[in-house]
């Protein structure tokens, strides 16, 4: 069984939204179930230890893929899942951290993951209607019964973090962090003072920072029907195009220095003191290998600082 320190010894965690496939929800395009299962096993063979998921990823599809992938050697994988993002029969997404929902989601995730425990279980988003301690009481009780090994908060804030620590240690915090979004940095001292590890999601800004999303693709909305970038209300074309416009100054600098956009995006996060791991979504073997190759060829902290000083993001 992999402990938390070991799970974070690899700087890349597998972002399981990429396994959503045709299930939709929060996912990034089609991937067949068997292909997704094989990809998880391949990533594990390549050395990745932590696999992050949530029920909303593919409306349970991501968890089912992971459940199948790890069913024969569960203890060789460190799995993260979350509670709080639900949906109605017509797949209208909702947020609730009511304790009864936390119980239901945890039990369903255990079934979908084909496991009697989840290594790291997190509250997915703060719910202004529900005191964070109410949902965490359920999770800490589940920890006492062995259904959860570690407890975390995703997308948290200072007030919730302080309340959460009244109940017990918060082992991991997870939030968006990339070249365009650095709001979470204001919490880093609180994370470190409480012994909370940090992992970033949105590390590649859903393809914007690696050129997989460019103006032509975005303007044509050239995404699979199951891809959240096709129609999600939070994926606003005006904002995407504005970011792409700002990045036009970055690409030639990286090319001149022989730094890939992927390596730069990874290096940007991993060179920040307090970033313990970055989550990256992958959909095939080529992407997996490119991420691991980029990790071995990160730009220096000095290079990153020089480049950031030369551009205006």
Nutshell version of this structure?
This protein is α/β, with parallel strands linked by helices. It is built from 13 helices and ten strands.
Question: Can you tell me about this structure?
Answer:
This protein is of the alpha/beta class. It has a single domain (4-310), classed as TIM Barrel (Alpha-Beta Barrel), CATH 3.20.20.100. Helices cover 39% and strands 15% of the residues. An 8-stranded parallel beta barrel has the order 1-2-3-6-7-8-9-10, surrounded by 4 helices. A two-stranded antiparallel sheet has the order 4-5. Helix 11 packs across helix 12. The longest helix has 14 residues, at 99-112. The radius of gyration is 19 Å and the shape is globular. The mean pLDDT is 96.
What topology does this entry show?
Layout: H1 4-7, E1 12-15, H2 33-45, E2 50-52, H3 61-70, E3 78-83, E4 85-87, E5 93-95, H4 99-112, E6 118-123, H5 132-144, E7 148-154, H6 158-164, E8 172-176, H7 188-193, E9 197-201, H8 215-220, H9 237-247, H10 250-257, H11 261-270, E10 277-280, H12 285-295, H13 301-310
Parallel strand pairs: 1-2, 1-10, 2-3, 3-6, 6-7, 7-8, 8-9, 9-10
Antiparallel strand pairs: 4-5
Helix pairs in contact: 2-3, 4-5, 11-12
Give the overall pLDDT as a whole number.
96
| Strand elements, count | 10
Give the number of helices: 13
Distance between the termini: 42 Å
- Briefly note the structural class of the backbone: alpha/beta
Task: Write the H/E string, N to C.
Answer: HEHEHEEEHEHEHEHEHHHHEHH
Spatial extent as radius of gyration: 19 Å
Report low-confidence residues grouped into runs of 5 or more: none
């Amino acid at each position: 069984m992999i402990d938390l320190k070991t799970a974070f010894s690899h700087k890349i965690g597998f972002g399981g939204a990429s396994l959503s496939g045709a299930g939709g929800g929060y996912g990034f395009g089609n991937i067949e179930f068997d292909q997704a299962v094989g990809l998880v096993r391949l990533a594990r063979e390549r050395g990745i230890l932590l696999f992050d998921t949530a029920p909303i990823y593919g409306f349970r599809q991501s968890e089912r893929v992971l459940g199948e992938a790890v069913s024969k050697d569960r203890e060789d994988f460190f799995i993260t899942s979350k509670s709080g993002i639900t949906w109605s029969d017509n797949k209208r997404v909702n947020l609730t951290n009511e304790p009864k929902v936390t119980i239901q989601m945890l039990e369903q995730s255990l079934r979908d993951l084909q496991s009697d425990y989840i290594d790291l279980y997190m509250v997915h988003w703060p719910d202004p209607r529900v005191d964070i301690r109410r949902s965490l009481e359920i999770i800490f009780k589940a920890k006492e019964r062995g259904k959860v090994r570690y407890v975390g908060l995703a997308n948290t804030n200072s007030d919730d973090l302080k309340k959460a620590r009244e109940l017990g240690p918060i082992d991991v915090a997870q939030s968006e962090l990339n070249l365009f979004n650095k709001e979470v940095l204001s919490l880093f001292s609180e994370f470190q003072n409480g012994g909370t590890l940090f992992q970033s999601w949105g590390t590649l800004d859903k393809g914007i920072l690696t050129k997989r999303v460019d103006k032509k693709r975005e303007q044509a909305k050239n995404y699979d029907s199951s891809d959240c970038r096709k129609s999600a209300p939070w994926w606003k074309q005006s904002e995407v195009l504005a970011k792409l416009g700002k990045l036009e100054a970055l690409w030639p600098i990286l090319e001149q220095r022989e730094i890939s956009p992927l390596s730069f995006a990874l290096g940007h996060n991993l060179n920040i003191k307090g970033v313990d791991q970055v989550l990256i979504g992958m959909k095939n073997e080529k992407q997996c290998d490119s991420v691991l190759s980029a990790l071995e060829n990160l730009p220096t902290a000095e290079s990153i600082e020089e480049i950031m000083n030369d551009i205006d993001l």
